[in-house]
Amino acid sequence: MVPLLIPLSEVYEEGITRHFVLSGGAVGMEDPDVGFAQPIALDCQLFEVNRDVVVRGTLATSLRLTCSRCAEEIVVPLQVPLEAVYLPAPTASSEREKEIEDSGADVYAYSEHVIDLREMVRDKLLLSIPLQPCCHPGCKGLCPSCGVNWNVSTCQCAQPGLGSPFHLLRELRLS
Question: Does the predicted TM-score (pTM) go above 0.85?
Answer without folding.
Answer: no
